[in-house]
Amino acid sequence: MNHAPNAVARLRDQRIDEGIKPIQARGWRAPRCSACRVIESHCLCAWRPSVETRSGVCLIMTNKEVFKPSNTGWLIADVVRDNHAFIWSRTEVDEQLLALLNDPQWQPYLVFPGEYVEPSRVTHSVDLDQSKRPLFILLDATWTEARKIFRKSPYFDRLPILSLLPDRLSRYRLRRSTRSEHLCTAEVAALCLELAGDSDAASALDAYFDVFSQHYLGAKGQQEVNVSTPAHAELQPFIRTSNAVLAQ
User: Fold this and answer.
1) How many domains does one find in the chain?
2) Which ranges carry the DTW domain (predicted)?
3) Which end of the chain has a smaller Cβ tally under 10 Å, C or N?
4) How far apart are CA 103 and CA 80, in angstroms?
5) Which residues of the chain form beta strands (DSSP E)?
6) pLDDT tens-digit profile of 179-234?
């Protein structure tokens, strides 16, 4: 099933064209689908949801993160049609990123924990101003890297900080984490979409994340694909393809 590549996929391909080599993590030799990054036997492409969103997303990524098959920013860009992705650099600022932040159609929110920010900048809600659409800036990196990006990116200083108040622990199991209260990027984005009134997109992304996790871990454990799980059932209403395709 063919899909237009999202901004993260284009960014990955651009880095490869520039001579940047993908990281060779465990299992890197296994043939992966170039569109969904999952091992081919457990390809996720037929389960990519299609939903309308008023919100946009902008992913600020590190060189390593854009190549990691376990990255969940890719899932967000699959779901949210208006998606953007940039590689962060301390010394160089992408002019396209600055143009996006200054685009009058958007109200950018930098998503970051409020406890690390001056209180006057922090909000826990999204202003649904009909003249501007929410644009969520997500620092798609490890927690250590995200704090560095936050501290050393002065062009973010004028943006309001959206500090989320999640009521559940992270479900992310693809990498080790010592902090279960730290949500992965896809979980964060789903909460943002819900706050912005994009409830269908939030539900689709939540289910898509769970299905991706099951396919990814199933391939890693050499288990057969199981499309009869609750997560697959939750994702089904957002899929524009036949049941015959999904059952294959």
Assistant:
1) 1
2) 29-221
3) C
4) 18
5) 56-61, 83-87, 106-111, 122-123, 133-140, 161-162
6) 444 688 999 999 999 999 999 999 999 999 999 999 999 998 889 999 999 999 99
